[in-house]
Design a protein that fits this description.
Blueprint (H helix, E strand, L loop, with lengths): L39 H8 L7 E10 L2 E6 L2 E5 L6 E6 L8 E10 L12 E10 L10 E8 L16 E9 L20 H20 L3 H18 L4 H14 L6 E2 L5 E6 L4 E6 L13 E6 L2 E6 L4 E2 L8 E2 L1
Antiparallel strand pairs: 1-4, 1-6, 2-3, 2-5, 5-8, 6-7, 9-12, 10-11, 12-13, 14-15
Helix pairs in contact: 1-3, 1-4
Length: about 325
């Protein structure tokens, strides 16, 4: 069974009794009324389709002396403000809604120690895929769907050395994506809304999400998590067993009785999905909080304090007038 890492939703569950103290009469979140904690696995599983070939797209990258932020189709795929050098990989099916043109945005920042880019700072990226139905076959793998390296001069040195920021957006094509998620693609562009009013509204939703978690309202947690979970498992061809395993893991994490929410403060508005999704992000520069959601909690795991941020975003789907959590 392949291990599926939940996208931005694994921190919004708790394993306690089913008693809910949330005052639903005063709630502003009203989405997915037919979803609850008991049927969410079955509901998601019923949306997953199987195909003769099921490509799983993966981005492999190596970074040198910089912090990377990677967005695929203007949705977060990876960010790190701690290490600064090394290599890793991430599955990006969730960022890909349908076949056709895709875009990748790379934002690089110098490390805290260096403060500016060095002559050998940079990133190398490759996107490939393997077939979920035949993942151990070399013939089922596709390499070099997209390649990119930060620019260098005639001496092989990073052209942006001594600078403090680098950004580029590149496009590539994936013609064989079998699924089609709507996701955020048909939602309203929120960038034209009054920023002060928008920030107040998002803050109200974030505070309500906190209350839902504090009150252990697992049904409401399921309702605000369903859309994102459904899109992720549809895009990754998740089996019912994998969905259940992920749900069980989430419940286990939130069996902790030492959960503590940090105050929602020192944040800024951030837009994703070409302006169709909005959230609040921490402005703190500390490596443990930089780039994190303003929704942040701490809990004890194996006697060790662990911090988790939940990157729930808000959007207004086409045909609707109120925000929904995504």
């Amino acid at each position: 069974m392949k291990k599926i890492t939940l996208i931005l939703i694994a921190t919004l569950f708790t394993n306690t009794n089913s008693c809910s103290q949330t005052n639903k009469n005063n709630m502003i979140i009203k989405q997915n009324p037919d979803i609850n904690a008991s049927n969410i696995v079955e509901k998601i599983s019923s949306q997953v389709k199987r195909y003769p070939k099921e490509p799983l797209y993966q981005i492999d990258f190596t970074i040198n002396h910089c912090y990377p932020e990677i967005l695929v189709n203007d949705m977060p795929a990876y960010k790190d403000f701690k290490i600064g050098s090394g290599g890793t990989a991430r599955m990006i099916n969730y960022n890909i809604l349908k076949a056709g043109s895709q875009k990748i945005t790379l934002r690089l920042y110098p490390t805290i120690d260096n403060k500016v880019f060095l002559q050998n700072s940079g990133i190398e990226i490759e996107i490939g895929s393997y077939d979920n139905t035949n993942k151990y076959s070399i013939e089922a793998q596709e390499d070099n769907l997209f390649n990119y390296s930060t620019p260098v001069d005639k001496d092989g040195l990073f052209t942006e050395k001594d600078k403090t920021y680098y950004e580029t957006t590149q496009t590539f094509t994936l013609p064989n994506v079998p699924y089609h998620n709507i996701g955020w693609s048909e939602s309203q562009d929120l960038r034209q809304m009054n920023k002060v009013d928008l920030e107040k509204k998002i803050l109200a939703y974030y505070k309500e999400i906190q209350e839902i978690i504090k009150n252990n309202d697992k049904d409401m947690i399921a309702r605000i998590s369903y859309n994102k979970m459904r899109d992720q498992f549809v895009s990754q061809y998740g089996s019912k067993e994998e969905i259940q395993e992920a749900w069980d893991e989430v419940l286990e994490i939130y069996s902790s009785k030492d959960i503590e929410f940090l105050p929602i403060e020192n944040y800024e508005l951030v837009f994703y999905g070409d302006g169709k999704l909005v959230g609040l992000q921490s402005k703190k520069t500390d490596k443990n909080f930089r780039g994190k959601s303003a929704l942040y909690m701490k809990y004890k795991k194996d006697g060790r304090l662990v911090g988790i941020d939940f990157y729930y975003l808000l959007h207004i789907p086409t045909g609707k007038t109120e925000f929904e959590v995504y």
